[in-house]
Task: structure prediction
Amino acid sequence: MALKQSETGGYDYFILVPVIALVGLGLVLVYSASSHSAALRIGDSYFYLKRQALFCLIGLGGMIMAKNIPCAVYSKLVYPLLVASVVLLVLLFVPGFGHKVGGASRWLKVGAFSFQPSELAKFSLVVYMAYSMSKKGSNMEVFSTGVLPHLLVAGVFMLLMILQPDLGTALIIGCWLLIVLFVGGVRLRHLLGLILLSGPIVLWLVWRVDYRLKRWWAFINPWDDPRGIGFQIVHSFLAFGSGGVFGAGLGNSKQKLFYLPEAHTDFVFSVAGEELGFLGVSIIIILFGFLIVRGIKVALGSRELYSSYLALGLTCMLGLQVLVNMGVVMGLLPTKGLTLPFFSYGGSSLVLNLLGIGILLNISSRA
Amino acid sequence: MKVKEKKWIRVRIYLVAIFFLLGLGTVLARAYQLQILERAHLRSIARQGYVGVIKLPPQRGTIYEREGHELALSVEVASVYAHPKRIEKKGITAKKLAKALGENPDSVLKLLNRRRSFVWIKRRIPPGRARKVMALGLQGVGVTKETRRFYPGKEIAAHLIGFVGTDNQGLEGLERKYDEILRGSQYSLIQMRDALGRLFSVSRPIPSGHRMHDLRLTIDKDIQYKAQQALKAAVERCGAKAGHCIVVDPMTGEILAMAVVPEFNPNSFLDYKPYQWRNRAITDCYEPGSTMKVFLLAASLEENVVSPLTRFDCEQGMCQVADHVIRDTHRYGLLSVSEIVVRSSNIGAVKIAQRLGYERLYDYLKKFGFGQKTGVELIGERSGFVRPPDRAGPVDRATVAFGQGMTATSLQLAMAMAAIANGGRLMRPYVVSSIVDESGKVVDKTYPKFVRRVVSAQTAAKVSRILEGVVGEGGTGPQASIRGFRVAGKTGTAQKVDPRTRTYSNTKHVATFVGYVPADRPKLVILVMIDEPKGIPYGGVVAGPVFREVGQWSLNYLRVSPQIRMAEGLEAGKENVTQRTPKPSARAVKRSTRSKLHVKMGLLPDFSGLGMREVLCKGKSLGLKVVPKGTGLAVHQEPRPGSPLRNMTKVIVRFRPPTYQNTEAMSQGSMGKEDAAGRLAQRN
Result:
C-alpha cells in the first residue's frame, strides 16, 4: 500500500489534489464559457459562476462529510436510495414537477434550482451494485443470481431514462453495468450474451428517433452539413483547432460566443481546448487519468469486497463519463447530452461527483 | 474477503484500468490531431465563420492637374445605418429617426423590421441632418461618413481620369489603374454572429492600415479644356464621328492634354454608352496615312540614302507597284525629297522607301515606337501593327511609305513626332507626375524617361526644316501655321478600310495633323486626328485649324514669346487658305511684302536665301553696314531676323553655295533650305 493510514486518517492527496485542480479549472472555464451568454440572456455575466461556486461549496462540504462517514452506512441505505431514485425519476413525468429543457424533461424544479434525478440514480446504482455483488460472492457466476437481479434494477433505471428521453445516460449506465459485472466475476459468455442482446435494442432506439439518427450521421460525416446537423461538432472541432498548442488564452474563446451550443455544460471541454490549447487539454486528460488510476488502486487495496466494488464503481462511473464526453466533443463518439465531471455546469452532477470522491477518500484512508 | 485474495478479480480490474488508459490515450491523440495537425485548416474555417465584415465605402485620394486644381475629388457625406436586432423599441426609434431625416416613419420602420443585422436607413445625407440623428442618441442607430466622388471639371479629361462605381471602386481610366493607390482606409464594421445567426457584437468602424494617396497629373486643365473645346467644335463643324487631340511636351514626354470627342461627363457616366468612355487616343489603332512620311524621311536622311535635294520622278500622279496603282492627289514630275514631304506625294514617298529598303524602314518605324505600346500608365493601350519584313509583300512594302498597311495609335504618332521635335530622342509619355500621401509628402515621382535615340540631332533638325515647309506656302497644311511662331508638322489624310467591302473607302477618311511649335525650340507637340469628316477630308483643312487654335492659345497661355515673324505668319496663313498652290510670282511678291513689313515695324528683315548683291543693297537702304562672309546665298545673319533696327549699326551675313554638302549648315538658317529647295523645284 502506498499510504498506510489510520481509520480516521488523513486525505489521500493523490486523489484530493487532482480533484481540487479539476474543480478549480472547471469553475474558471464555466465562467469563461458562460459569461457572454449569461450577460446577454440573464443580464449578469457571473450568474453561472455564482451558482457553480455555490454548488462547489456544497459539494466540497459533502465530500468532507462523506470522507468521514464509514462507507458501510451506504449499504444500509441501498434500498431507500433506489426507491427515492425511482420515485424522483417517475416524478419527472408528472406535470408540474418536470422541468423541460429542449424537449427533454431531465430536471425537477426546486425553488430557484433544479435537480437532476439521473445523477442520484447513478449514485444509488453504484452503491446498490457494490452491496449486491459483494453479498453474492461466488454466486455471481450463476446467471439467475449474478446477472438477472442487477439487470432488472439497472433496466428499470435505464428505461426511465430512455423515456425522459436521455439515451446517453442510459447507455453510460449500460456500459458501466457491463464493466462492473465483468469485474464482479460474471461469466464472459453471459456478458457476451448481454452485449449481443442489447445491440439490436440500442440500434432500434437510435433508428426510431429522427434526431438520434441525424446525430449519428453528423458523427459519421460532420463536414457534410456543417451548418445543419454537423453544426455542434464542427464548431467543437473549430474550437479545438483555434486553440492550437498554447490556446487563445483564458476568456478568449470565440466559439463559446454562441457558436458552441451548451458551451458551459456539454461542450465546456471544447472551450478549454480553444482557450488553453493542447497543453491545457493534455493536463486535464492527465489529471483525469491520474484520478482514475488512483481510484482503481484504491479499489485494489481495499480491505473488503464491498468497499472495493464501491471504489471501483465510483471510479468507473466517473471515468466513463469523462471518456464519453471527451469522445463526443472531439468527434470520436456520436453526440450525446453528457456532462464532463467537475467541469460542466450543473449542481446535481458536481455535488454527487464530489460526494463520490469523498467516499473514495474514505475508502482510501481506511485501506 | 479481500479483492487481493481473488486473483481473477485483480486481473479483471487491471483490464479495466487498461481500458480507461487506452481510452484517455485515444482522446489525447485526437486532441493532438485536432489542435496540432489540423490546426491551421480549422482555424481558418473558424475565422470565416464568426467574423462578418461590413465594409464601408472608403475615402479616396484626389486627382490634381499640374497646377494643383482638382480634377477628381471626394466629397464627404453622411449616411445613417441601423442594427435592427439591437433595437428594442422599433416603433419609437423609427418615429424619431423619420422626424430627424424628414422621412416617412412607416418606411423607416419597415427597414428596422428587416431580419438583417445591418441596414442603411439613408445614405448620403447633408451634415445638418446627420447631426440631428446623432443628437438623438438612439440605440442601434449610427451615422458614418461616406464619400462621394465628384468631378468638378465634368467632361475635362474625363477619358483620362475615368470614374468610380457606387462603392468608390475605380472602374475606368486612372481611377481604375490607380485604384489601390487612391483608395483610402477601408472602414469596416466587424460583427459576430451566434449559432442562430443573431448578431451579438458589432465593432465601431475600424480603419484598415491602408493609406490614401493623391495623384498629381501632368495634364494642364486649361490646355486640356482648350484642346477639348477646339476639337469638339471641329468635329461638329465637319460632321465627323470622333476626334483626338493630344498635347505633349516633347522634351519630357509629359502629356499636357489628351482630348477625346465624343465627350462624356463622369459624374453621370451611366448616361453614356461604354464606347463613349473609351480613351480612343490610346485604344484605337488606325492607318496613320501621310504623317508616316516624316519618319520615312528621317530614316532615309539618317541612313544617308537621300538628301533633302535628291530628286525623284513622281510619274505624273500614277505609278504601278506590282498589281497596285499608287496615285497622288496632284500630278507631279520631278520633286526633291523635301518637296515630296511638303506636298505629300505618295509616289515620291514610295520611291524614297524603295531606295531605303523595307527592312531598314521597318527597323526605324520600330525605333520610333510603332507596333509597340508607348508604356504610358493608362489602361487599354494598344500597340498597333507594322508588318515585319518577312511577311510583307511588294505592295505592303510600298504603301507603308505613306502610312497604309500599318496601324498606330494617336499617342504613338504624337510621341514619334516628339522624337523629331526634341532632336531624335524617343520619350516615354506619362500623365502621372507624382503620387502624394496624406501628409503631402511625395511618395513616388515620375521622371522623364528616355527610351532610345532614334535618329541623330542633325537628322532631326533636317527633318524639322522640311516639316516647316508643310505649313508654309505650297505645303499641305498652311491652315496649321501659327502667327508669330515657326511651326513644323505633317498632314495626313488616310482612307479607311470599309469593313463591308474590305477595300479602301472613298468616302471615309481619317484626317490628321501632327506637329510641333516653336519649330526651333519645341515646347508643344500637338496631334489632331479627326475620324470620318464629311466634305473635304484633307488633314490640313480639317485638322490643321485645330492645331493652330490649340497651339496658338497654349503658347500664349504658357507665355512663350512669339518669334518675330509675326506679320509673315499672319500673311502666309491667310494667303494659303485661299490659294493652295502659289505661283512663283506670288512668292516674290510675298517676300518683298514681308521684308517691307519688317522694315515698317523697325525690325531687321530676314536676308536668308538672297544673293550677296541683294543683301548689300538692302543693308545700305536700312543704313546698316553689311559684313558678308562666304559666297552664294545668305544662310545666316547676326543679329537674327526680327531684331530691332534701333541702335543697330552692322549686320554679319553668312553665305553658302546651295549644294548638297551644305544642307546642314543651311538648315541652321531660318528659311534657307526651303527657299533653296523651292527654287530648285521651280527650275524644273
Summary: Chain B is about 40% helix and 25% strand. Chain B touches chain A through 44 residues (CB under 8 Å). Residues 221-436+447-573 of chain B form a domain with the Beta-lactamase fold (CATH 3.40.710.10). The radius of gyration of chain B is 36 Å.
